[in-house]
Amino acid sequence: MIRAYGQDMRDPDAPRLPSSPGFWRSPLRGPWFTSVLGLVLLAGITVLFVTGLVSYAAYNPDLSPVNDKTPDKGILGFYLFAWPTHPHWLYRLNQGVHVTLGITLIPVLLAKLWSVIPRLFALPPARSLTHALERISLLLLVGGALFEFVTGVLNVQLDYVFPGSFYPLHFYGAWVFFAAFVAHVLLKLPTALRNLRQLRHPGEEQNDLVTPRPAEPTVSRRGALWFVGGGSLLLFVTTAGQNFDGALRRTALLAPHGGGEPGSGPNGFQINKTAAYAGISAAERGEDAWRLVVTGRTGTVRLSRAQLAELPLHSSALPIACVEGWSTSDQWWRGVRLRDLAALVGYDADDRPDVFVESLQRRGAFRSAALRANQVADPRSLLALYVNGEELSPDHGHPARIIVPAAPGVLNTKWVARMTFGDL
């Protein structure tokens, strides 16, 4: 028997158009199968949306002129707030959940889209205003889901290939997708409730997803769910390890920073970009050339690395946690407290300012970063000169880098050149 898209080519009466009820012949499709997948996605996508928004609140990106990095400003930035510094592993947990869950849900999403594909071809396109709204929300939902998952995976796995910055595209795409998601859930809620009542009797189904010409089944619906769940479990096992320490890191085969540590010694832990990639030469990092420029209320101070090392030094045990989902274990950093640098330019203990940090970096995103007053005030926030008892390596930010508890890695600026204290 020869079939194409579920059609028996030897049957002259077989439907030839995807819009025909009998064109899609899989006996797996039906409200029970779709509802189970939908329940998983309803919970999972809600968590993804919340952790994604929290991630944007954590690093306050400069999304656009109408939605800047300042808390309480911008059309879609109304929820932004001063990101806390306690507990110090907060961003590591949030972004680990966001990225790992997103990758784990890919088989569920694909199975869900497969289960409802007949509805994408249903005719007429709209039978009523409610049906038209439902179809529009469905198109935005499918398109938004594919866009968010594809751009997210590409950002995690590869050098980003889409035009424009990943961060605003993913951020605004998430709002479009979630608006369609909420509209679709509200419009389909009565149907979803009816389908839930059929969960105990998956064989007693009648709706537009159930084909009138079922093909011979090769697997049961529960077997198909086990297959989808097995795919999700495989992705989870081969991704989640990038968020842990020790031997578990070696299980992260599908994570770009998975496996063992990239080197040995005090500086032998994960990095996102090298000094060579950032376009930083050894000469400009040298003792004779490099100076840290600190500006604030009382003027400007220029400090060499040797002068920084003569200031009171403090230590903090903090991880690096990246927006891409990977993180390191706690590293032992030593350097000058940010609040002590603020004091050098006129700010006392009761008057902690924000700070704008600029890097020597020439290529790549996040050549500068804004830190809030609560981050500057935290005694664990450092301009680090050493890590794990040794000077910073060039790839870890020599001659000096920022390290702040619970902050995304993109805010822990490497190769710091200038710090401007004051209200941002």
UniProtKB/TrEMBL annotation:
<feature type="transmembrane region" description="Helical">
    <location>
        <begin position="169"/>
        <end position="187"/>
    </location>
</feature>
<feature type="transmembrane region" description="Helical">
    <location>
        <begin position="32"/>
        <end position="59"/>
    </location>
</feature>
<keyword id="KW-0472">Membrane</keyword>
<dbReference type="Pfam" id="PF00174">
    <property type="entry name" value="Oxidored_molyb"/>
</dbReference>
<dbReference type="InterPro" id="IPR008335">
    <property type="entry name" value="Mopterin_OxRdtase_euk"/>
</dbReference>
<keyword id="KW-0812">Transmembrane</keyword>
<feature type="domain" description="Oxidoreductase molybdopterin-binding">
    <location>
        <begin position="287"/>
        <end position="421"/>
    </location>
</feature>
<dbReference type="GO" id="GO:0016491">
    <property type="term" value="F:oxidoreductase activity"/>
</dbReference>
<protein>
    <recommendedName>
        <fullName>Oxidoreductase molybdopterin-binding domain-containing protein</fullName>
    </recommendedName>
</protein>
<dbReference type="InterPro" id="IPR000572">
    <property type="entry name" value="OxRdtase_Mopterin-bd_dom"/>
</dbReference>
<dbReference type="InterPro" id="IPR036374">
    <property type="entry name" value="OxRdtase_Mopterin-bd_sf"/>
</dbReference>
<feature type="transmembrane region" description="Helical">
    <location>
        <begin position="223"/>
        <end position="241"/>
    </location>
</feature>
<feature type="transmembrane region" description="Helical">
    <location>
        <begin position="138"/>
        <end position="157"/>
    </location>
</feature>
<keyword id="KW-1133">Transmembrane helix</keyword>
<feature type="transmembrane region" description="Helical">
    <location>
        <begin position="97"/>
        <end position="117"/>
    </location>
</feature>
